């Protein structure tokens, strides 16, 4: 890749392919792979990611909202797409674009059946989500008979899959809780299969579930954050490769004399001669104000440059006193060094938040980097 000349998010498709192959090496060849590409592909480029994953043999995609699925259809992607959080307002888009809703409540089930009936649908694929402990969305096990009753009197929909979501599959301290979730999911899906008279796809493992509970993979598994280079486990993170690298450049260098200040509210005051570099990236671009005042840092010419003063809307200033650099030099905000995990940990956050916060005004550059 040529050196960055502006703030850009580089998306390495070879890293994506490496991560996909590594994660899928842990599941049976007969197990289907559902790739989660919501939130612009975890802040990257959902269309570029989807097209690459199709060449790698992915079976399903998942997005959060119907509009995200619609964008993929507009890009010519025909792979089945599960919408994890459909809303009745978007049922028309869901059916017109052949998206598949995750149905999680009695109200939504009734409303979608009625809507599918009104559109003369037959056996339209839906996914039934059960709550086994995350307590976010999902039917309860006690509602199985009610679900089966509603399904028995409608030909407009057909259950494509039964799913649940693990709450703490990455946490060794929550193994007992996770096993209980897995046991509950088995009981629910077994009862559903008997009631339906056929076996839909079943899936409850996420990336950490694949890594830690691979014997519960059923017919399909889901992977999201793992595709983008993070496995919620230091050992796995050494094998996975970060797909996204956020870069910027040095706009200007300043000599700050003792007693002078830098940035809004004079948050930084020099006690000795200090050299700072101003960079064209700020909290509008997804770099939280929490990184200001030395909490966060960037890498310039391989050296750590702490953020000085407050993060501005469109700029940050960093301390380059001990770094040989000049205006126009490339700056790494996150990627291989520092990683999105290391940077997010500095503010007690997680890579998910940092990655997905990167503004759409930041230019995306999709490429292949052979290693």
What does this protein look like?
- With 371 residues, the protein is α/β, with parallel strands linked by helices.
- The chain has 2 domains: 31-228, TIM Barrel, CATH 3.20.20; 244-367, Beta Barrel (Lyase, Ornithine Decarboxylase, Chain A, domain 1), CATH 2.40.37.
- The chain contains 12 helices and 19 strands.
- It has helices at 13-24, 38-43, 46-56, 66-74, 91-96, 106-118, 144-152, 175-196, 207-212, 234-239, 340-345, 351-357; strands spanning 8-12, 32-36, 60-63, 81-83, 100-103, 124-129, 157-163, 201-203, 220-223, 244-249, 252-256, 261-262, 268-269, 274-279, 297-300, 303-308, 316-319, 330-334, 363-367.
- The strands form 3 sheets. It has a 9-stranded mixed beta sheet. An 8-stranded parallel beta sheet has the order 8-7-6-5-4-3-2-9. Strands 12-13 form a two-stranded antiparallel sheet.
- β4 (81-83), α5 and β5 (100-103) form a beta-alpha-beta unit.
- The two termini are 13 Å apart.
- The model has no long low-confidence stretch (mean pLDDT 97).
Q: Kindly give the count of domains.
A: 2
At the fourth level of CATH, the homologous superfamily of the largest domain is Alanine racemase
Order of strands, main sheet, comes to 11-14-17-16-15-18-10-1-19
Rg calculated over all Cα atoms: 24 Å
